[in-house]
Amino acid sequence: MNEIGPPSENASSEPSENKAQIARIMLLGHDLRAAVSDILGGLHLLADEDLSPGMRLQFERMRAAGEDMARLIEEGFEIVTDQAVGPLRQTVQLARLLYDIEMRWTGRAQEKGLGFHVAMAPDVPVLVRLDRIALERVLSNMLSNAVKYTDSGSVRLALTVEANARLLFTVLDDGPGFDPELRGRLFRQGARGEVPGKAGNGLGLFISRDMARRLDGRIEVSNREEGGARVALSLPLEGLMPPEMAIDMPLPDLSRMRVLVAEDSALNQAVLGHMLSAMGAHCDTAPDGVEALEMLDNGSYDLAVIDAEMPRLSGLDLIRTLRASGGRHSTIPIVVCTAYVLRANREAIVAAGADAIASKPLTAIEPLAEAITHAMERQSADPAGDGRRPCPPVVDEAIFEELLAVAGPGASQELLQRLISDLTRVERGLVAGLSEPNLPLVRADSHVLLSVSGAVGAVRLQELSEELCACARREDIAAMQLIGRSVLTQIDRLIAYAGRRQRRFDEVGA
């Protein structure tokens, strides 16, 4: 009689070992996500620092690369844990995508002494819905090849819409072009890497072809008549337009108005011009502060949209000069465009004489429209035109005073310090959560804000926090990021208010 022995050691342990490995991988994924979240949060906080143009470029390059790394980590762990569900379609803000590409590749091109330029046609849609990771891989490989094989001149990326309703990303370089003998093998591993003096494994176009298929797109390569190479990725627009394209808020009517856009980036000039034209405005552009000032001296404008950081004359210096001039544009409504900054920068912008702030990169028309509406309302409510009408109160004074009275003189300072500490911590969490985006983190911090703002009588912040939490629950990322900017502004105002009250206690104590 044959005896049936126990299962073999390998047979019994293999399933449990697999489960243990998956558990370890999931734990590692959690730790990596947390680490990347801390890095991104720290980078966003560094935006408050006064950096040189060179350091600012490197900062933006690190931020864009960090956000790419976060997305790649998510895809990697989906694959390793066998949780991938096919291409991940998500809403992509094309202006933000190009801004991040510009930040990442300008530095890399400069390291080789090359110029790098990005342009976007005005008829390109603001939002599309597609697999962003696949798109970034294709574009990165196209740009990597262009920079690698170009020794002088520049590399250019243009985004346009073809007549046959296709989205077209075109990379042009001033390199040697493609060897005709290698054209038939361009999309095989090692193809362009065989160019003498250019070591490499030639994976770029090989990977790009497969990623393009994942996007239902195609890649075309050719040599330019004037010299250099052309690589183009085209995607069908049909099916890419997301429901978020619908604009919920009424746009300000800027018809019959002339707007000056002072911005040194050609990409941002195109984006701002596209958005302002949609509101009916006629736009003129200036590439720096000096030229903007000359245009304001010699022309007639109804509104100015000014970049905070420009060559020759910064945006803030331009505003201060205008406000102090006493000329016809000394009271013009001014919107300042700047990357998200914390309280010190915002206070400096307002102190210089700006009427409203729009956060860069401008990836949707609503934040700009909201800032323009706010700037126009401030000026119409202030016919004297000093541009400094106070904003609505940040808190209900009666509720705040009652809270301090209950705490008593001895505990009031401690209460204010705890309030500032809680708000600062939440602010950092929201900056990281909105940039990734991290929905659980946004939900958790908006819950904290609901409680804190309600306790101190910050009614507007309480309302916005409730809206932000609802957007995070619905996973409506576009609306969440839009409302999040307003929440961060209100947090800044509340921290500044609590700080002033704290200083008042210190002065009385002294």
From TrEMBL:
Domain spans labelled Histidine kinase: 27-239
PANTHER family named in the record: HYBRID SIGNAL TRANSDUCTION HISTIDINE KINASE C, TWO-COMPONENT HISTIDINE KINASE
Top-level taxon in the UniProt lineage: Bacteria
Tagged with keyword Iron-sulfur: no
Protein name per Swiss-Prot or TrEMBL: histidine kinase
Assigned keywords, A-Z: Kinase, Phosphoprotein, Transferase
Domain Response regulatory as annotated: residue spans: 258-375
4-aspartylphosphate: modified positions: 307
Group of enzyme by EC: transferase
Transmembrane parts of this sequence: none
UniProt keyword annotation of Transferase present: yes
InterPro entries, sorted: CheY-like_superfamily, HATPase_C_sf, HATPase_dom, His_kinase_dom, HPT_dom_sf, Sig_transdc_His_kin-like_C, Sig_transdc_resp-reg_receiver
UniProt-recorded Gene Ontology molecular function terms: phosphorelay sensor kinase activity
Listed EC numbers: 2.7.13.3
CDD domains named among the record's database cross-references: REC_hyHK_CKI1_RcsC-like (cd17546)
Reactions performed catalytically: ATP + protein L-histidine = ADP + protein N-phospho-L-histidine
Source species of the chain: Rhodobacter viridis
Pfam family, one: Response_reg
